[in-house]
TrEMBL record:
Gene Ontology molecular function, alphabetical: kynureninase activity; pyridoxal phosphate binding
Protein name per its UniProtKB record: Kynureninase
Species, as recorded: Leucobacter luti
Keyword Metal-binding set for record: no
Family: Belongs to the kynureninase family.
Source lineage: Bacteria, Bacillati, Actinomycetota, Actinomycetes, Micrococcales
Amino acid sequence: MTDQITRLAAQARELDDADPLAGFIERFAPAEGVSAYLDGNSLGRPLRDTGARLDAFVRHEWGSRLIRSWDEQWLDLPTELGDRIGAALIGAAPGQTIVGDSTTVLLYKLMSAAVAMQPGRDEVLIEANNFPTDRFVAEGIAHARGLTLRQLPADPVGGITVADIAAAVTERTALVVLSHVDYRSGAIADMRAITAEAHRHGALVLWDLCHSVGVLPVELDAATADFAVGCTYKYLNGGPGSPAFAYVNASLQELTEQPVWGWMGAADVFGMRERYEPAPGIRRFLSGTPAVLSMLPLQGMLELIEEAGIAQIRAKSVSLTALVVTAVDELLAPRGVALLTSRDPERRGGHVTIGHEGFADLVPRLWEDGVIPDFRRPDGIRIGLSPLSTTHAEALRGVVAIAEGLTGA
């Protein structure tokens, strides 16, 4: 194994030396005691200047300007940041994206709004192994509204396909809920073709972008997507619990009614009216007071992404995952490890998943040694590779540590 590691290490160095995004690595705070952080698809690393940004906020925007900051800048943050996400990351024209609430709450708002728009249709279709929050929210809405929730099986490695949707969607289907990138395998769904197929039957589509936003280009407008939700604490590095964002196609906004009526989504926020009247446009999807403090780290990461460009970020992501797949083949496959992610980079997102019966015991030992991948039951490790904060050498160190852990088990 030594010769293989030496050769792979030389390859990783060459890739890092040629990396046009290499300079971004130093903009992230060092992680003490961590030699390989392979979980950026669950929680992104903080930037070096995040502490200073928060300190300045406490001293000036909050500490000195106090409540005046609401009028000066905070009230517009949800839509301003939403438009920046739309332009840089998800292919959305202005006025269609807003930051606020958690992923779960936004899923609830958009699913509820979507099914309410489809009278006479009594079915919600969701991929059977979608992330639990998506499935649980859909289950709750179906239960409350007397709808049928149909769970659609999909290939565990290849993910959901247009053929799967064509065979499943009917005239009864009100809404299809899918992840753009599968949280387990990393499989990329064909957003444009799947959306078109669902629309052909009159169904609406809600896309979960949590594992795609910030690591590969998303083109919601070009795909004529209806709704989308994404989080900001993975590849957008907003920090634990940072708010999610919602996209609602402009053609649907005035036709929708989201179920959580709050003062920030009202047409006259400070009018203190007797009855609720929704704000025009995307702002109607707000409810309560925006989490301004939690938006600060997100702003810093958006600046980096805008500087780097999503095309270059995607190119590095492909390079990182390709190196990991090669290392898995050479170092882990001989030890009984299965590759659970597509070999085709066009079908692969920003993480690589591998399987072995010994991973449940191995991962705690890796964490103790400063190698941090993500474990997914029953026997999977996800190697999450956030392009702006991860080198090829670091990714390889993680795979080598897994190989050595299995050898010593």
